[in-house]
Amino acid sequence: MLPCYVMLDLETTGGNPVQDRITEIAAVRVENGVEVARWSTLVNPGTSISPFIQNLTGITNEMVEQAPGFDEVAKPLMALLKDAVLVAHNVRFDHGFLLNEFARLETPLRVKTLCTVRLSRLLYPQFKSHGLDAIMLRHGLKTTARHRAMGDVDMVLAWLAQAEEALGVSQVQQQALTLLQGSAALPPQLETNVTDIPDTAGVYLFFGEGPLPLYIGKSIKLRSRVMSHFQAASREAREMRIAQEIRRVEWIETAGELGALLLEARLVKEKQPVYNRQLRRERTLCAWRLDENPKARPLLTMVRAEALQPQQFGRLYGVYRSKNQALSGLRELADKHQLCPQALGLESSKGRCFAHQIGRCKGVCCEGETPELHYLRLTLALNEQKLQVWPHPGKVGLREHNAQSGRSDIHIFDQWCHLATVHDEAELEDALTGRQTLAFDLDTYRLLIKHLMPLGKPGLKSSKLISFDEARIPI
Questions:
Q1: In 162, 195, 296, 396, which residue has its Cα 20 to 30 A from 422's Cα atom?
Q2: What is the mean pLDDT of residues 121-138?
Q3: Residue 473 has what pLDDT?
Q4: pTM for the predicted model, two decimal places
Q5: Burial class, 460, CB count within 10 angstroms (exposed 0-12 / middle 13-18 / buried 19+)
Q6: Which of the following is catalytic: 147, 337, 392, 401?
Q7: Is residue 245 part of a domain?
Q8: Domain extent for 454
Q9: Active site residue 147
Q10: 109 falls in which pLDDT band (50, 70, 90)?
């Protein structure tokens, strides 16, 4: 298959390479088609093996109690892997465990990898399943040591021998070299050819078996970003779970970074992917409205998501993702600036507030401070959280142009809300003349604060701000 490779299999205490440990290693080194070394050992994982794993593998706690730890077997394993390609059935699993075990020893593991699950997909595309049990059933292979490391190694070697006999050594070698030159870090069950993904700006969607996406992300280099997920799977638990569940990748190109950011935020809120948390729909957004009268009680009232109108932002402060977050933030502000919690509406008592009794309020609640001075200090304290009034006379657009693809997009905004992204004159006219419902979105607001203030100085490259108050600007 390859000039020099090591067929390897591990048994472990579980499926998480960061938390779980190795219990058995088996490896066979093959050079120029000839087996030159065979090695296997039990490994003391330093932790208990669950009853489920004991039943699955047949490896018990008693069996590994006197076995060497990984630190004792690392040196002979490294010698066996020297100048060879690491080959395994679902190599990402085995490689991930080895990376973490060697990392604990502060020893880097640098080895090329090849996955025989992906090789089976290339050699036998007519079949849907390429797990080891399915391969054994199709090819009539039998073993009494399934889920033991050397037993599984022998089964994969036997399958390779059958494949070379049936398809020819050159065909197997050619497909193996194709995988080796590509990326063995890809999940073996991935149906999408990652070379089809463009390395341009856009949004990517990971799908499992069902119709809803597992994860939605954005990047200015789609293919590179998608690959980074798979490469991180051996180090991060969430990436490992995604890699285990993913079946296909879809993508939508944009003209630039802003278009990708806006599209990602919209799609995440619409489709609610299970592994996205930061950009999910926020139904509990709220802010504080400051009364114009210094003597009003309470001085601040909570404004809920449905009442967050951008036209009122001049008197609104600090958008929070929940009521509890808003109350907690206001208490911290009151404590930091010695503001009266009673006047702010945080306490319902009358007379001296509790904060004044312990020296944390200057006494507006008991005539120790004038309402006007307290109001001024409150306004100054809130100033950093003040929501910005829309700085433009009407709708504006941000034009993004991709010189590489020739694509141009215009993103239309009004009152901090994203109205549309258009690509031609007709869409632009509809966006400018149509009546849209303005729906405030915190993520879009924060994005535009960075990139649309002041007019004509956007923070993103390859973009130009357009004002529509005087003339229509063509695409």
A1: 195
A2: 93
A3: 46
A4: 0.63
A5: middle
A6: 147
A7: yes
A8: 396-467
A9: yes
A10: confident
